[in-house]
Amino acid sequence: MTDPHFLPADLPVPVDDGACAHLLGVRLPALALPGTDGRLHDLSARPGRTVLYLYPKTAQPGTAMPADWDVIPGARGCTPQSCAFRDHHAELQAAGARVFGLSVQPTAYQQEAAERLHLPFPLLSDAGLQFIRVLRLPTFEADGETLVRRLTLIVRDGITEHVVYPVFPPDQNAAQVLAWLRANP
């Protein structure tokens, strides 16, 4: 098993397959998603700016990731991506954005990661894939699980104004988002 905090140098780079081209200007669905903060969050009704980074699956200590995880383009890097959003959280807030992470793992699974990684923002669970299906977000299969491909949405008043897809390298995503927010106040 490899350390989930570090990215191997030889990870395959994901390509933009156009799977997110339809998202600009789209209103988020009115769905209440459970968060690791114990609350339900309907991002479509949230005023102001929201940064929503979507990731496939965080590693749990002592648990193996799906087979061939490091050779699936864009799969590896959920922990470094989350840690980068943690490390830039104050700057993202100062730029006027509230941060959320989202995956298909149940809230209890996410809670372990949120606590272990000391995340100052909630992770949202779309275990039923409702949010992902309504927005027609790209997914992939690994070990029998349907997982969302890594992407980031910047949303204003419930409407998508910027999409980062594919996200690579994942540990640079928060800095990329911060730069975009500063250039587009």
In total, how many beta strands?
9
> What level of helicity do the residues show?
10-25%
Give a short account of the largest sheet.
5 strands, mixed
Calculate Rg over CA atoms: 15 Å
Portion in beta strands: 15-25%
3D shape: globular
Unreliable spans are none
User: Major sheet: order of its strands?
Assistant: 5-4-3-8-9
Secondary-structure element series? EEEHHEHEHEEEEH
Kindly report the average pLDDT value: 94
Secondary-structure map:
Layout: E1 33-34, E2 40-41, E3 49-54, H1 78-87, H2 89-94, E4 97-103, H3 107-116, E5 123-125, H4 130-134, E6 139-142, E7 145-148, E8 151-156, E9 159-164, H5 173-183
Parallel strand pairs: 3-4, 4-5
Antiparallel strand pairs: 1-2, 3-8, 6-7, 8-9
Describe the structure in your own words.
With 185 residues, the chain is of the alpha/beta class. The chain is built from 5 helices and 9 strands; from the N terminus they run βββααβαβαββββα. Helices cover 23% and strands 22% of the residues. A hairpin with a 5-residue loop joins strand 1 and strand 2. The radius of gyration is 15 Å and the shape is globular.
How do you describe this structure in short?
23% of the residues lie in helices and 22% in strands.
Key features of this structure:
two-stranded antiparallel sheet, 185 residues, 5 helices, alpha/beta, globular
